[in-house]
Amino acid sequence: MTALETVLAKAGLRVNAVEFLHLVEDAAKRLSPPNPDPTDYFSSEQRDALGEVGLDLSPRRPDEIDARARTVAAQTVLRDSALTVLDAARKLGVDDSRIRHRLAAGRLVGWKDRGGWRLPAWQFTSSGVLPGLETVLAAVPDDQPPLVVAAFVTTPQEDLRINGSPATPRQWLLAGGEPQRVAELAAVLGIPA
Question: Do residues 114 and 142 lie in contact, with contact meaning Cβ atoms separated by under 8 Å?
């Protein structure tokens, strides 16, 4: 077993190494250009202002790690671990039309992919849907992509504590925490602090 196959197996991803690398390549192609020049995104006045406050707008050096790598990996794992509509219907014991209805109503989150809808696995439990999910999803701003929502739900939050330690929103909800507390945090996704 190769190192990549070992990592994929430990992570519980149902994909072989070659398929995973194709997913990574596909995700990388959909992101920004490989070596964007940061100055291309700003007017000269904006560049001057950003430079004055210490922001470095120089292009990435050849020896510098590409910041897109973490995003590509996260997007690839999110996509590979996502359920199809049929998978979600089986998991919840409902007809697949009910899953599409929940997606349309914002009671489940997903995105359209080449093969149809994909639903991130984080919103499901072994016995159904994550408790409080509808409350949380109702608060998420409409412009937030699934990767941002997934990162939020799976990242420990200082405002959500279980036994004195920061918990992820998913952990909080699974432990019976108040969904409204997570919804309040979700409502400000994408808004600068």
Answer: no
Burial class (CB in 10 A: 0-12, 13-18, 19+), 138: middle
Distances in Å between the Cα of 81 and the Cα atoms of 12, 25, 54 are 9, 17, 40
N-terminal to C-terminal alpha carbon distance within the chain: 45
List the structure tokens of 186: 């979700």
83/136 Cα distance (integer angstroms): 20
**pLDDT tens per residue, range 99-127:** 999 999 999 999 998 889 999 999 999 98
pLDDT tens-digit series, residues 158-189: 999 999 999 999 999 999 999 999 999 999 98
C-alpha to C-alpha distance for 131 and 133, rounded to whole angstroms:
6
The neighbour count for residue 172, using CB atoms within 10 Å, is 26
Show me where the domains of the chain are located.
3-67, 79-186
Task: Look up residue 154 and give its two tokens.
Answer: 């799976």
Cα angle 87-123-105, degrees, rounded to a multiple of 5: 85
